[in-house]
Structures are given as C-alpha cells and as structure tokens.
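Anyone? Bumping this.
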Amino acid sequence: MTESEEERFALANDLRLACQRIARRVRFESTSQVAPHQFSVLAHLHHGGAQTPGQLAALDRVSAPSMTRTVNCLEADGLVARVPHPGDGRQVLVELTAAGLAIITRTIASRDTWMAAHLEGLDDDQLSLLRKAADLLLEVSNG
Amino acid sequence: MTESEEERFALANDLRLACQRIARRVRFESTSQVAPHQFSVLAHLHHGGAQTPGQLAALDRVSAPSMTRTVNCLEADGLVARVPHPGDGRQVLVELTAAGLAIITRTIASRDTWMAAHLEGLDDDQLSLLRKAADLLLEVSNG
DNA sequence: TATTGTTATACTCTATAACTATA
DNA sequence: TATAGTTATAGAGTATAACAATA
C-alpha cells in the first residue's frame, strides 16, 4: 500500500466515524412520536413522493409483509394514506398526509437545530470549509 | 434570522443529510455475522474496553434486561465474556474475546473500504479539504 | 402464469415488573 | 435500604409461507 493510499484509508476511517457519530447523535436527538422504522417510511415519502409498498420495502431492506404492517400503523395514525395506483390495479400508492408531513418537518427541524447548535463555536473559515465539504460529501453519498 | 444564521442552518441541513446518508450506506454495506444491536455492543467494548451491562445499556438507550439478553447471545457465540468486577461483587464486566475482536476488525475494515472506494474519484485538493473537515466533524461529534 | 399486495404463523428484540445477590 | 444484574411475562417488529386480486 502506497503512502497516499494509507492516507486515503485513514481519511476514510475518520470520515466514516464522524458521519456515523453525527448520524447517531442526530437520531437520538429527535424523540419523534413515531418509531424509527415508521419515520423512515415518512422520510422516503417526503423525499421521493408517493410510492408503492414494494418500493418502500426495498428501500428499507425489509420484507413486503413487514412494510404492509408498518404502513397499516401509519395509516391508522393518519400519517399516510393508501390510494389506488392509476395504471395498475394490483399496486397501491402510499402517500404522505398533512399530519405525516408535519411530523417529518418538525423532526427535520429539530435535527438541523441540533446540528446547527454544534456548529456555533466555529469561525468563518471553518464554516466555509465545512460548506465545501458538505457539498463533496453529498456527492459521495449519492455515488 | 440573519443571513449568516440562514447559511449556518443550510449548512447544518446539508451536513446532517450527508452524514446520515453515508452512515446508512456504510451500515448496509457490511453484512456482518451479528445483528446490528449486537454489533453495537462489540463496538462499544472495542472503543471503551470492558464495561458493565448497565453501562452498555445506557450507551444504547436500551433497558437492562434487553442488554442482558444481548450479552447472553454474544457470550453464547463466544464473542464476549463475563468476568467478575474486581471491586464490587454485584457488578459484572463484559469484555471482548478474540473472536469478537476479529468480527469488529473485519467489519470496520469493510466499512472503511467502502468509504475509501467512494473517495477514489477525488483530486488532492478535495482530499485535503475532506481531511480538515473530518477533523472538524470528529470534534463536533464529540461536543 | 407472473406479479403485487395482504393474511397466517412463528421467532426475535424490547420493556416493565418481580426476584436474587451484594453493598 | 439501595444497587447491579438476572428472570418472567407481555407487546411490537420482522420473516417465510400461503392466499387473493390483477396483469
């Protein structure tokens, strides 16, 4: 392994560790009204619009029956609604209700508030550094 | 809200999102032999050394009986061992075995490999930018 | 016949309450 | 009496297999 490869692995380790820690802290921060697996579905719908149970199950690496159950709970709580699929009678679309959207919005805000609070002590140079890093990391996480 | 505050919140949002995405991708990447909640215990022991079941339960925001069960499974699999607490007969110390350490090491390596692979396309300027950002984020995640 | 989604059943993880051992 | 840990019991989530409806 060359020196630059070692440096890249060290950077990979630190970046991964930092991201995992922040994700963990952020997750514990927002004591949302819904369970994590339920919130995950709301987040997917918020991000990608109405989707079928099958798509949602694939996104969360979960079985179809599990997703059926989760969607049932969310529907009973009025956070999502099932609507007929326009082109295929076998499929169903799950969409976010206003109440579901409100929970998503509130949770995201509380998580961002935590993150913003932890950026308070940084100076302008550090903030602009993180600004560029955030853009890079968003690209990396999409790749 | 001032303009700089808005920028800080926008940065907070992007950083949080990127960290969550990377943490998620990394988690799905390593199909470890042990379940996530079990791996979490191994990671805590790897990071902080031998600890009591009570400490481990607090770290994972989990009840004491749940941690008892998880430690039982890990002990049955030979990944951790219970040893008497030196100073207090009521307490027990959970420590990593060689087999447990091996799983941790292998999983960390596979996660870092994923992260490193996703840094491949970046040039030296971008890598040194992320190097500084990683240090900042590690500080932030400890705060 | 293939596919989407749902029900049936069993297993695992977690929590609260009760119990045991030590301080 | 207080604390650390473990058992007992019940509730919630998930998976595999079987079923219903549509393509």
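Late reply, but here is one note on the structure posted above: Chain A touches chain B through 47 residues (CB under 8 Å).
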